[in-house]
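Q: For a teaching session next week I want to show students how multiple molecules come together into a single three-dimensional assembly. I've collected the sequence lines for a complex. Could you give me the predicted C-alpha cells for the whole thing so I can convert them for display?
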Amino acid sequence: MSYELIVNGVEFEVASPGMRRLLDVLREDLGLSGTKEGCGEGECGACTVLLDGEPVVSCLVPVCQADGHAVRTVEGLATAGPQGPVLSPLQAAFLEAGGAQCGICTPGMLMSAEAFLASGASPTEEAIREAIAGNLCRCTGYTKIVEAIELAASGRGVDAASDA
Amino acid sequence: MTITTRPGPAAPVSPAAPSPVRLPRAGELARGHARGAPLRREGPAKLTGTALYADDLVTPGAWYGATIRSTEPHARLLGLDFGAEFDWSRVVVVTAEDIPGDNVVSLITDDQPILVPVHGEIRHQAEPVALLAAADRDTLREAKARLSLRTEPLAPVFDPLVSSQVFAHYEMGKGDIAAGFAAADLVVEGTYRVGHTEQLYIENQAMIAIPREDGGMTVTGSLQCPYYVHKALKRALALDSERAVVIQAETGGGFGGKEEYPSLLAVHAALLARRIGRPVRMIYDRHEDIAATTKRHPAIVTHRTGVTRDGRIVAQEIDLVLDGGAYCTLSPVVLSRATIHAGGPYDVPDVRITSRAVATNTPPNGAFRGFGAPQVEFAAEMQVNRIAETLGISPLELRRRNVYREGGVTPTRQVLRESVAAEEVLERAAEAAEFERIRERTARERAARTAGVRTARGIGLALGWHGAGFTGSGEERMGSVASVELTAEGAIRILTASTEMGQGTKTIFPQLVADELGVPYDAVEIAPQDTSIVPDSGPTVASRTAMVVGGLIVKAARRLRAQVEERTGRPFAESYLHDAQTWGGTREDERFEPYPGVHFDDATYTGDAYPAFGWACAVAEVEVDLDTGEVAVRSVVAADDVGRVIHPVLAEGQVEGGTLQAVGYATIEEIKLHDGRYLNDRLQTYLIPTAVDAPRIDAILVEAPFAGAPHGAKGVGELPMDVGAPAVVAAIHDATGVWIHDLPASPERILAALDGHKPPGPPGISA
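A: Of course. Below is the structure for the complete assembly, covering every listed component.
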C-alpha cells in the first residue's frame, strides 16, 4: 500500500504494509533516526512524535493511521540558519539547563514538551511533570528537564546557534 | 542549589594567563543556568536528533543477528534440533564449534562460555547456545522459532543462602570484637535483604560487527569500556590488537549495565559477521535486554552492633552474602567494595566483617551504579536508624557522635588523612531540609493521628561514603594511559578511552585541558572512543573518569604546555599554533602513577582501600497512604562531596539522577523470579519512576578536594545512589512507625507491616 505523510512540513509518499509501525517508516524509509525506540510497547515514550500536533508513541501507531496526517519529529524543531541548524527555544533551554544527559529519551521528551508548550497550558511544575509523565528518563531525575521546560515557557531560553 | 567550598588542593589549578574559559573557582559558581560553565559538548547533536546511536547507524548489506538461549535454569545441552520444515540455507547458524579462539568471555575467571557447547552445562535461563543471522527480520524470526534445544535437566540452585559454590569471600576487621561487645550497653541486631534490580538504560544493548579487509573485525556499539570489548574480541576471534577495532557509538545510558555485557554481545555479532563475511547488527529489544543482561546483586546483610547508652557505636559484626548468579563475572570486585563499605561512614573501634559471593542458576549479576555499596549502605543505615530509635537519640545526633573525621581508621585500617566531609554533608543536608524541625512536626502528627487520618508524613535521613576510583591496587595494576596532543595542524586533541554516556566526559575533559592550557574550551577537541585511535585509559566505571583519567589529562596538558612554552618563550595560548607549524606535532602520554602515600596490601587486605572517599547525605520526605501502602516521595535534599566541582550543571545532574534511581530502588524496583527466570522483563511490569513519581530534588555540592589528584576531583556518579534508599525507608518509618527491612518498600510490604504481619521477602531468598 501507499501512504501520504506530511513529515516536518514535507510531503512523502511511502510504500509500506499498512500495519508497519510509524516508528520504522520514519527511521528506515525516511532516514529520520532522531526518533528512538526504547521499549516497543508504548511504555517509555522515547519514540514520541506529534501527529497533527498531538503526542503519540510512534511504536504503537501503524503507518496507515498516519495517512494524510502531519507528523512532526525532533528533526523538525531546529530551523536552518546560515551556519547550520539553529536550535529552537525549547532545545536551547534543554542545552542550557542540562535537560539532556545520555540523550536517548531527549527526542521524545522534546516532542511531549513541545506539545505542552503549544497547548498554552499554564506551565506550573505540576503541569509540566504531568505532560512528560509518559516519557521515561533514567539519567536526570527529571529536575533539569522540568527546569528546561519552565525556562522555555518563560521565553528566557537563549537562542543558541549551533553547527550540529 | 548551593555550593560550599574548602581550601583548594595542594597543586595550583590556575593557569597564569587569563583564559576565556576556566573552571569555576571557589565561591564564584554563579547562580542561574549555564552558570559560566560551557554547554554540553555533544548536546546540540542529541537535541536535534543527529547524534548517532548504534541502531541509527546505516550499514548497507547488513544481516540481522539473533541469539538462541536456554529456557532452563540448569541443564546439560545434548544437541540442537533444526526443524525440517525450514530451509536452513536462508540463514547462517553459529555454534560453539565455530569460535576460532577461546570459547570464553571473562573479566576475572574463565568460567563463562560465549556459547554453551554440546555436552556443556547450561547454568541459567537466558544462556546463549547458538547464534542466527538472516538478511531480513522476518526470516530471522521464522528460523528462531524452528531451532530448539535438546537438554537433560539438572537440579538448579536459586537461594544464595543455600548455594555451596563460592566465587569469593573476605574477612576483615580491626580491634577486638569481643572486647567491643563487652564494652557495649546494648546490642542491636538486624537482617536486611535486597533483590535484583535493573539498570534500565533507555537505549537497549546494541552492537554492529563489520568484517575488515585485513581479516579482522570492527565492532561499533553501545558500551562503557572499549578496551574490555577489545580484549574479549581478540581472544574469541584469535585476532591481534590491530585487527580488532572497537568503536563506541553514542550511548544511551549505562549505569554499569554496559560495563561487561557488551563484550559478550560484541563477540556474538562478530562471530556471525565473520561467518557471513558481511556486517551483522545485533540490537536487543527490551524483553531480551532485561531477560539476559546483568542485574544489581541481591544481598543479605546481617548486623550485630554494640552501642553505649550515650550513643557511641563500639562494635560492629557484619555478615554479607551476595548472589552472583551463574558466572563469576565481576562479583569478587563487587563483593570487595561491598565488604569495605559495609560498616557505613562511622568510626567504630572494633569491627569484624565477613562476606561471600555465591553462585545461583540465574543470569550473572554485575555492575550497577554503586557496585555493591548501595546494598550494604542500605543495611548499615537501617541499622543506625534503628539504633537511634532504640536509644531515643535523634538520627542526626547519633551520626554526629560516630561519623568519620580526619584521622579516622576504616575496617581495612586505612587512616583517613584528608578530604573527610562526612560531618559537612550531614550538617548541610540536615540544615537545608530542616530535618529536626520537620521531624518534630511529624512526631506530633503521628502522636495526634486518629483512625480517620489516612495519609502519614515522615522524614528520614541517611549518610554514606563511597571509595573514589578502583578498590585497592586496581588502578596501579591497570596502568591507564591518557594523552593530550598538539597536532602538526595546530589542533589540540584529547585521547582517552573514557566514554560519554550522558555523565559529561566530553564536556569536562576539554574544560580541564582548556583551563590548564589557557585556551578557549572550543579550541580543545576530543578524539573518538575508537581503540585504533585512543590509548587504553581503563574502563568508564567506578566514578573514576573525572578523578583518575581527568587527572591524567591535566598532567599531560601541563607537560605539553611546559614543552611549548620552553620552545617558544611565550604563553602557550599565544604560541602553540606557531609551535606546531615550526616543530610539528607534540603528543604527551600520561601513565597512571600511584597517588603519593597511598598503599594497599592485597594479601592481607589492609591499607588504603581507596585514595579518597566521597561523602553523601540524603534527607527524604514522604507521604504514605495508609490504606494502599503507596509511598509518594515528596522531596530529597542530597548533599554530596565530590572533591571538586568541574561543571556545576553536570555534577548536579549526576546527583539528581542518582538520587532518583535510589528512590526507585527504595520504593518500586524489583525483579520477580520464577525458576530463575525474570518475570517482569518489560517496562510494563518493571517500573521505574516517572516525572510525576519523582520528588523535588535539591542537590547541594560540597567540595573537600583530594590533594592526590591535580584538580582535586573525587568523582560523583555513584555517591548519590548509596544514600537515597535508606533515607526513604527511614522516612516511611517516621510516617508509619514500621520498619521495612527489605527493598523495595513496596505497598505490599508496607501493608503487611502495618497489619503486624511479616512482609514478604525478596524473591528467591530463604527467610
